[in-house]
Amino acid sequence: MSNSEKQESILNLNTLILQTILSILIVIGIVFGLAFFFREELLGYSTIFIKIFGYFGLFFGMVLSDSLPAFIPPDAFLMLAVSGGMSPMITIVSMSLGSILGGSLAYWIGLRLIPRFHLGRKLVLHYEDKLLPYIRKYGFWAVVISALTPIPYSWMAYTVGTFKMPFHLFLFGSLFRILRMSVYFFAMYLGWISGV
To answer: Following CA atoms 98, 100, 106, 111 in sequence, which dihedral angle do they give, to the nearest 10 degrees?
Structure first.
């Protein structure tokens, strides 16, 4: 790797770190605003969600969220958990396991199903331009980066499945979803209690 490639790689990584920090600050700000202006409404929705679905709802919501892109973003489930006063540890564990299972389903869809269908190949090619450089440049670390940053984890799962990354590497990189869920949970919690 040449000097200019190393500098570009460091610049890209620094940009991702900055985007991640910025997204965390935005999440805190949004949650603060929601807690300040719509606290009663959120408490009502979260109470209903918790009574009907509980922790299993968080788990299953994350499975859907990270196996079907364009479903509900993971942060919506975190918001329900935070505003509903759910246990941080159980929330983080159930959502992390659901996210990893959802990502694993997306990986297997990318590996087995997408290559068989024209529309599937077309979708992967659309996102390939954005994600493939990360996969080529960072390999396994591309999964870690997508697990931690605003890069869409489910699309990365589809893509690395399609390009046949070994599953054990994908799974190991996906474990970093636990860290992301933890950081975002407590960032939202900070925004929620600040909005009182």
So the answer is: -140
Give per-residue pLDDT as tens, 144-188: 888 888 778 888 898 889 888 999 999 999 999 999 999 989 888
Identify the pLDDT of residue 90: 96
pTM, two decimals, is: 0.81
- Can you give the three-state secondary structure of the chain, one letter per residue? CCHHHHHHHHHHHHHHHHHHHHHHHHHHHHHHHHHHHCHHHHHHHHHHHHHHCHHHHHHHHHHHHHHCCCCCCHHHHHHHHHHCCCCHHHHHHHHHHHHHHHHHHHHHHHHHHHHHCHHHHHHHHHHHHHHHHHHHHHCHHHHHHHHHCCCCHHHHHHHHHHCCCCHHHHHHHHCCHHHHHHHHHHHHHHHHHHCC
Question: Nearest CA to 67 among 106, 41, 32?
Answer: 106
Q: pLDDT tens for residues 34-50?
A: 777 888 888 888 889 88
Say how many residues make up the chain.
Answer: 196
Confidence of residue 62 (pLDDT cuts 50, 70, 90): very high
